[in-house]
Structure to design on (1122 residues):
């Protein structure tokens, strides 16, 4: 618990130092704070016993408001631990990447960046519902400030839209979460599990209680929770805040937004929506799956016609996270494991893409594909990274995106109750509301993804060289920005060592996770399996099925192969 | 069966119940004399003596208030008086310098002689204390006539405070207009709830609230009593600025000086809520036969434990409309005082949700406890916002009269020009919005849980959506000081010479942060204050045979 607390409190304490300390040292202090947090997160990961990856370890609890059943209790399973590691890794990267981009109000910038870091780690570490909610909500303020102060032209509208969308959604989610707490306090006999029959916001207790909630009530709880989390993911059709917020946010803001903040939504679905409303999830998984597939294709097609590179990557997040949620509602081990892995992979590759676009923006002050082209000739190192991360994002086999996207698709493909009607063995098939059609259409989303990303890469990396200052229509603007740049420390044409250093760890992880994802898949399988078994048994799926299902899926690998038609 | 004073022992008991009020009244007398002294240092003692009196009253409230006064809410007075004293103590430094500023300035320059007839200081502080005395008396009320007098004692001084708070040619017409508007509408509402009280008396033949509760429990609620109750509740809703009697709020808050607006946002509101809780508790929560009191406390989950349907419907509609009207109209405002006025309306709506939820055993199910906790939360958070307005002024007009800042634009870049005030505004606005983990969030959470635990899910959703609407305007109050640059064209706002106002803001902002750590004990106290006892237990109490239904921990 101490290590986790330190990982959360270090950025907070450093934020105070940054905001009071000298402005010219702010970025160094902030980076040190980020590294401090990363260090504690790594230490926590070493202390974590990965062989028991389904258990909540490094746990602890401090009493806060026992009258309300509210405690500061934290602990992580492997999913939370990996997401904390991702967050802690992106922290210093974002801080270092902002060195030249942020020249005004540096103390404000880095202080809020650090506070955001603390809140995000807090979300993943929380084992108390209200503590989770507090951290979840508190990520809004720093991001709102970052977009509002350091974004581009339309930043105020974007920041406000971002705040109001998410705030409204999460208030409704809070009502749902509190309802579950009330159900636990009154609807279950005391003593049936720790925390039953009393007011508590302990996640484990509430999860146990939620299983006995009537299905009709669960549907409302699911709706309330999705109101909060689907907006955050964002799922079609509540995704409209995201392109605006992403486009207007400063580079580091976009990286964090795509890398971590969107994952708060999928993590919320994973941690709360599925286990708190199991029967409803089983019932409505088809509907959610349809929304995911529509989002995948719709956002993908929008990407295709984008001329703003940043907006393109932003919409691609909507498309990609559709896969992520699709894997979750497949409700089988394959899909859930793939989905959690996707959260990490998307954070790495999309985060890197936003960094790369930010580097271009710092040099040319434009993100329009009309004004950029053939940059490989001028910036070979940048072009190399760009192609690499675009490939990772497209899910090229061998890079990280592939394995997770593939697992999500397989999960969706297999999750079909009608498999059971087919004669003969159907390996891996699990009862569920999705099925081959979902796999097929989502698979088409992969093709669309390849189209728009490759089109974008083809245009701005290769193709004829276009640079903004040579562009007549924007000549005046180009001159002005260059004149302005004369005061700022001039950046070299191609990437400098700092920028390469920022991108290299991400690239390395993309390769490692692409080639050898087995260790991570193995530690993710246990919690995914637990979740699936919990949801399935709580939903009372298939009268004869659940027992067999549960027994089978407790040995996940075997289950995938040995599942036979009943 | 009008509650009569049966014997000396009962007089003694009643007096023991209002020791804090007596202390406040004594302080009032002292302050009234001090403010007329020709010596400036003595005159300046008014505020410190008021604060001292409030502190003493607070201590007395905690130590001397007996829990045997009877009634259906026997633990209410102690907690209510304690928070009244605390918020009153925060209001004192804020109210320093509200009146007599020009007068004292001229006296100090030797241009005029000090003339006790022309000063307002003594009156202002005396009325300040009178109003708080009335508020505390509301908490002790066990009788309709007492309740009416206490409500009027709370309100009448505020009419005068509003009127005299405009101290220069610029603000005087506005404050006069506000005072007149406030007075006449207030008189109308008083007539309304007095008529309601009369009907209640007509229906039950008693003015004693515990007796009334017992009669309702035995005979049920007849239409006459219901009409009386509805009139009384709607009339009292003027004090809490709830729909339909909310119209005066923005105009009066805008016209009065900020310290007085802050006073109006807490004191009459608290009086209104205490009265509504006391009135509703005569009729509510036991009107169906068949429930039984265990330990004298009726348990929340029992059958038949709710309000009469018509009363509940009225409160429900009032709550939903009050929240929505307040929040929607606040979005449209550009004047911070009007924003805060509409937000004050909205917050009354939130608190009405707690009244509808009704009592329970713990803070999570006790809607009344949630309301009582929220009163403190709202008082503390709101004072911060008003303190910022009260601490800054511009020189306007040909003679350079000081004018309080009041538009949103006046707050631009406040975190850079006046960091303490800027951050006070940011924290207060976020707390009023209910943003986690600030105090406002902890205030809203029990309202949420209590309403959910009573099955008021639609109301909770209305509450949630309204909090989202509220984000529109509170976010402006955060964004403008925190993110905008100071307006280079306008003259910067200067601090008023009253440093204590900044102190009030600072304490309030610190409270928003620090109280979240100690909220547990406050919540326990407020939850206990909201505990409800059945009418049978209450009536035994008032008849002087108070051994029967005593809970074990009641000090006697």
């Amino acid at each position: 618990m101490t290590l986790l607390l330190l990982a959360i409190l270090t950025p907070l304490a450093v934020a105070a130092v940054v905001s009071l300390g000298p402005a010219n040292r702010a970025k160094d202090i902030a980076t040190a704070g980020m590294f401090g947090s990363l260090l504690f997160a790594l230490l926590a990961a070493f202390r974590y016993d990965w062989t028991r990856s389904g258990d909540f370890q490094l746990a602890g609890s401090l009493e806060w408001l026992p009258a309300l059943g509210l405690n500061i209790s934290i602990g992580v399973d492997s999913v939370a631990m990996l997401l904390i590691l991702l967050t802690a890794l992106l922290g210093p990267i974002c801080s270092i990447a902002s060195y030249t981009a942020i020249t005004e109000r540096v103390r404000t910038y880095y202080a809020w960046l650090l506070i955001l870091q603390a809140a995000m780690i807090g979300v993943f570490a929380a084992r108390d519902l209200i503590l989770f909610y507090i951290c979840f909500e508190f990520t809004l303020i720093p991001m709102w400030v970052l977009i509002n102060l350091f974004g581009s032209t339309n930043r105020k509208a974007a920041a406000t839209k971002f705040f109001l969308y998410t705030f409204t959604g999460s208030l409704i989610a809070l009502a749902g979460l509190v309802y579950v707490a009330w159900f636990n306090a009154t609807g279950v006999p005391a003593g049936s599990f720790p925390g039953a029959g009393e007011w508590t916001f302990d996640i484990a207790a509430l999860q146990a209680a939620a299983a006995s909630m009537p299905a009709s009530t669960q549907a409302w709880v699911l709706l309330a929770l999705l109101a909060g989390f689907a907006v955050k993911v964002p799922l079609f059709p509540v995704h409209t805040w995201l392109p605006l917020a992403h486009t207007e946010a400063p580079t580091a803001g976009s990286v964090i937004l795509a890398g971590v903040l969107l994952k708060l939504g999928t993590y919320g679905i994973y941690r709360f929506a599925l286990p708190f409303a199991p029967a409803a999830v089983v019932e409505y998984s088809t509907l959610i799956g349809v929304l995911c597939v529509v989002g995948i294709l719709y956002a993908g097609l929008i990407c295709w016609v984008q001329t703003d590179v940043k907006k393109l990557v932003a919409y691609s997040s909507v498309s990609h996270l559709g896969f992520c949620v699709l894997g979750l509602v497949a409700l089988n081990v394959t899909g859930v494991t793939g989905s959690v892995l996707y959260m990490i992979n998307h954070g790495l590759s999309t985060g890197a893409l936003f960094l790369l676009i930010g580097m271009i923006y710092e040099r040319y002050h434009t993100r329009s594909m009309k004004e950029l082209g053939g940059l490989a000739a001028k910036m070979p190192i940048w072009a190399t990274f760009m192609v690499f991360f675009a490939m990772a994002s497209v899910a090229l086999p061998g890079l990280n995106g592939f394995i997770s996207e593939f697992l999500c698709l397989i999960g969706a493909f297999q999750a079909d109750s009608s498999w059971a009607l087919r004669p003969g063995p159907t390996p891996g098939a699990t009862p569920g509301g999705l099925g081959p059609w979902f796999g097929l259409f989502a698979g088409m989303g992969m093709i669309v993804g390849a189209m728009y990303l490759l089109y974008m890469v083809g245009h701005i990396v290769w193709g004829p060289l276009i640079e903004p200052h040579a562009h007549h229509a924007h000549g005046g603007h180009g001159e002005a920005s260059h004149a302005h740049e004369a005061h700022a420390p001039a950046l070299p044409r191609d990437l400098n060592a700092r920028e390469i250093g920022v991108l290299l760890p991400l690239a390395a992880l993309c390769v490692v996770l692409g080639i050898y994802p087995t260790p991570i898949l193995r530690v993710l399988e246990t919690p995914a399996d637990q979740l699936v078994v919990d949801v399935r048994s709580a939903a009372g799926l298939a009268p004869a099925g659940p027992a067999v299902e549960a027994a089978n899926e407790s040995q996940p690998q075997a289950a995938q192969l040995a599942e036979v038609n009943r | 069966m009008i509650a009569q004073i049966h014997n000396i022992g009962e007089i003694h008991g009643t007096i023991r119940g209002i020791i804090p009020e007596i202390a406040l009244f004594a302080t009032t007398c002292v302050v009234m004399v001090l403010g007329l002294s020709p010596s400036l240092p003595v005159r300046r003692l008014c505020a410190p003596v008021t604060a001292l009196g409030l502190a003493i009253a607070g201590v007395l409230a905690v130590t001397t208030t007996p829990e045997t006064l009877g009634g259906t809410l026997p633990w209410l007075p102690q907690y209510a008086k304690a928070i009244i004293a605390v918020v009153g103590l925060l209001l004192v430094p804020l109210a320093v310098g509200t009146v007599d500023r020009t007068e004292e300035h001229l006296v100090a320059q030797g241009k005029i002689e000090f003339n006790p007839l022309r000063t307002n200081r003594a009156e202002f502080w005396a009325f300040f204390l009178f109003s708080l005395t009335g508020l505390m008396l509301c908490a002790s009320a066990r009788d309709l006539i007492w309740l009416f007098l206490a409500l009027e004692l709370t309100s009448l001084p505020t009419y005068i405070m509003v009127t005299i708070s405009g101290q220069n040619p610029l603000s005087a017409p506005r404050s006069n207009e506000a005072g007149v508007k406030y007075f006449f509408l207030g008189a109308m509402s008083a007539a309304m709830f007095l008529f309601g009280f009369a009907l209640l008396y007509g229906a039950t033949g008693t003015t004693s609230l515990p007796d009334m509760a017992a009669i309702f429990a035995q005979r049920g609620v007849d239409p006459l009593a219901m009409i009386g109750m509805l009139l009384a509740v709607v009339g009292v809703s003027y004090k809490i600025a709830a729909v339909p009697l909310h119209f005066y709020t923005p105009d009066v808050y805008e016209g009065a000086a900020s310290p007085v607006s802050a006073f109006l946002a807490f004191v009459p509101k608290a009086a209104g809520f205490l009265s509504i809780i006391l009135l509703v508790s005569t009729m509510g929560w036991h009107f169906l036969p068949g429930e039984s009191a265990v330990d004298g406390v009726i348990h929340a989950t029992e059958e038949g434990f709710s309000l009469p349907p018509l009363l509940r419907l009225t409160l429900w509609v009032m709550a939903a409309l009050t929240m929505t009207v307040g929040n929607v109209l606040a979005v449209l405002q550009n004047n911070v005082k009007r924003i805060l006025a509409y937000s004050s309306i909205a917050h009354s709506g939130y608190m009405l949700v707690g009244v509808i939820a009704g009592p329970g055993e713990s803070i999570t199910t006790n809607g009344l406890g949630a309301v009582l906790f929220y009163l403190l939360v709202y008082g503390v958070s709101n004072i911060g916002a008003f303190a910022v307005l009260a601490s800054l002024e511009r020189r306007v007009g040909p003679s350079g009269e000081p004018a309080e800042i009041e538009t949103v634009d006046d707050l631009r870049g406040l975190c850079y020009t006046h960091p303490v005030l800027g951050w006070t505004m940011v924290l207060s606005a976020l707390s009023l919005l209910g943003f986690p983990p600030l105090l406002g969030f902890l205030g809203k959470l029990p309202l949420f849980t209590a309403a959910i635990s009573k099955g008021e899910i639609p109301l909770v959703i209305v509450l949630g959506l309204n909090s989202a609407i509220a984000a529109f305007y509170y976010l402006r109050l955060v964004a403008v000081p925190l993110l905008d640059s100071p307006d280079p064209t306008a003259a910067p706002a200067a601090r008023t010479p009253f440093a204590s106002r900044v102190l009030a803001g600072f304490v309030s902002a610190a409270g928003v942060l620090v109280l979240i750590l100690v909220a547990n004990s406050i919540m326990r106290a407020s939850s206990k204050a909201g505990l409800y006892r059945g009418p049978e237990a209450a009536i035994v109490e008032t008849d002087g045979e108070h051994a029967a239904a005593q809970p074990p921990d009641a000090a006697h």
Q: What stands out?
A: The radius of gyration of chain A is 23 Å.
